[in-house]
Protein 1
Amino acid sequence: MRIGWIGLGKMGLPMSRRLHEAGHTITAYARNDAGRKRATDNGYQHVSAMSALAENADIVFTAISDDAALLEIAVGDDALAAQLRAGQSWIDTSTVSPSASNLVAKRLEARNVSYLRAPISGSTALAAAGTLTTMVSGPRADFERLQPLLEAYTRRQFYLGDGEQSRYMKLAVNAMVGATAALLAESLAFSGKGGIELEAAMEVICDSAVTSPLIQYKRAMIVEGKYEPAFAVSQIMKDLDILLDVGRGNHAPQPLAAQIRQQFESAYLHGHGERDLFVLVKEMAELAGIGKEPA
């Protein structure tokens, strides 16, 4: 199948590779030299106009950063939504708001273009291995027709409904990710004040009832104190902002998420915006004075 791809970033690139390796032709939208080189290095064709991307694709995938990027792609006379034809499809894998996604859905419905909201959960390593999970909403017939493409980079595909349900689910999952980072940071600071070394505390946590795939995945990062971003502080701040905004609009109380959002704000103000969100462990240790000589 001919696939158009927008967003060859940390997650988009390994996902697109899985589809390419499955035998699909990839044409990437690339507006600069770096993007064109990334496409060429991976054996993809590349174009610099939305019209050319639509012309060379049966289906378009997007893996972009936020609402603004999605709407830039979707809205306007020269945007992708205006270039797609009846019978084509668009799968968006990004974490964006239900309202922005719904705007895209309405524009595509008017053109008889199928639209699946399919945000993903997992790490760059899982993307490369093809073992992400995806939460999908949109017309069930389109989901069933396009599911083999999703299977190229995911191990599970959860169909949640015909509207924006997957957007809500992804935000709920990411709220849990942020909460895990915050509570783990507090727990490690507390155990550290009791004289327990970080590595020993993580060993216990990772072999206890409270462990999770997420904590296991972050274990080495935390023990080594190297917070290279798999999921940056700035990204979780963006997702929590969307969650809180949607919650206010729907009268869905999010008191813990609001408090945790402020912890990430503190990390951001301390210069950690582009470090991994589990840098909260370092932040809380410093606040507790762990590792400092007693006064």
Protein 2
Amino acid sequence: MIELPELDRASLLSWTLNTLKKHGVRPSKKLSQNFVVNPRLISDVLSLTSYEDTVEIGCGIGTLTIFLINRVRSLVCIEYDERLIKIAASIVRNPRFIPLRGDALATGVGRPQVVSNLPYHVTSDMLITIARDNSVSKAVLTLQKEVGERLVAKPGTESYGRLSVIVQLLFNLKIAGVYPPGSFIPRPKVASSLLLLERRRAYDSVIEKVEHVTRALFSQRRRNARRVAESRLSINVEVLTRIIPSDKRVFELEPEVFLALAKELAST
């Protein structure tokens, strides 16, 4: 019989270390592998999930998966590391659990709910992949605290950027918790945030243009926004004058301004 951990730190830590040792696995720095051992973080993730068909991106050895499988309708795990997906498959014995070895950036998501402790090295790309997939209505994501702050950042702040604009236009966002580096082993250098994203707008041709507009304008984030737009976007000057305040720099523009510019491009 496979021994599963209890939802307390001592049990999680002991179980994780023993499982890694048993299977001869050393966490990969290249793949940003960190395994959760904080019971509060796991409980908070579970409290935000709904009874939906769910994808867990990067389930590792199955620590969260063990508890998550009992909270969702079905659970697909997409794990890049073949060593880890074999371990998770051997531990989580449930007909509603489907382990897949693959790259979520390539396979996509395709389910209403996403849960993930996002690997640091693919966080931005994975957020865009989730944003573009209209089958995703909710995402419960653990990521670097700095990235979480970027996602909810307000215009005019240092953290505000193109990722802030795109995600805020598509989702309602909430930082549900902040957790110290010791919440994982190996211990990362930075704290982590838990974010809840709930879709409020579909990704469509206009949002595709938002990606183009933000890429063009944020390349010169501190310059006067109207001047940058005049040089980088194929939009009539009179229209730009109507949409963009004359005194705003790029990083001071509200998400709705980028959306208005995108609508103009999409209509031409």
